[in-house]
Every structure is written in C-alpha cells, then in structure tokens.
Amino acid sequence: MSQVFRALLVSFAILAGNAFAAEAPFEAARFQTLLSTGQPVAIDFYASWCPTCRAQAPLLKALTKQPEFHGLTLLVADFDTETRLRKDLNVGMQSTVVVFRHGAEVARSTGDTSEAGLARLLRTAIR
For 22-126, CATH number? Predict the structure, then answer.
C-alpha cells in the first residue's frame, strides 16, 4: 500500500470519526442541517460555573457513547454566549437539555442529574 494511499485512509478515518461524533460544540449551521435532515439531536445548555451542568456532562457523554444512542448528536451550547439560541428555544436556565426528532422538539428537561432520567430523555429522540 502506498504511503499516499495510507495517509488518505488515515485522514478519512479521522474526518469520519469527527463527522459522526456523538457530542460536539454547538454550531448553528450544523444544528440546522441536523434538523432539516430529520436527524436525532439534543442540545445541552451548559455553563462552566453550574454545578448541575458539571454533574450532567459526564452522564450525557457516557450515554451518547452507548450503542442505543448511535446516530444521536449531542450539541453542547454555552449558556452564557448562545443568547440567541436560548431565546429562540425559550430556554431560561442552564442545565437544560432540549431534544429534537424529525426536525421538531419532542422533549426537554432542566436540572436532571440521574442517568436513568437523562437516558429516558435522550430516547425520545430515537423512538
């Protein structure tokens, strides 16, 4: 196998892994693409100063890596800077997770730090 071909395969694997990552920072264009294509997506409104957000983060990350949630994208929005998004989605508190399926909001939760509760919430995007 040539070195160029091998380098291309490695580059493709890295790009594909990032393209299908279960968790990513919020980007408006990516969110709109996910909505318009009907992909399951959840937005986590996270604030670094929020203890509830810090408790939710590792649970959400672990859940999105489970095979059950393959295909679900978790976008992490900075509560303090994504003011337009907060207004558009009527989100008043950090630690809010908003779930979309087929381009429409199907569920939301604020302040839940139980793995079972967060799993139940994320399931609404895929079922």
Answer: 3.40.30.10
CB 107 within 8 A of CB 124: yes
Mean pLDDT (the chain) is 88
Cβ-based burial of 15 (10 A; exposed 0-12, middle 13-18, buried ≥19)? exposed
| Cα–Cα dist 69/90, whole Å | 26
Region 53-80 average pLDDT: 96
- Rounded Cα–Cα distance for residues 26 and 5 (Å): 33
Looking at residue 112, its pLDDT comes to 98
Asked if 64 and 72 count as a contact pair (C-beta separation under 8 A), the reply is yes
For 104, the token pair is 């429409």
Measured torsion, CA atoms of residues 76, 78, 52, 54, in degrees rounded to the nearest 10: 70
Q: CA nearest 97: which of 120, 81, 69? A: 120
- Domain spans in the chain, listed from the N-terminal domain onward: 22-126
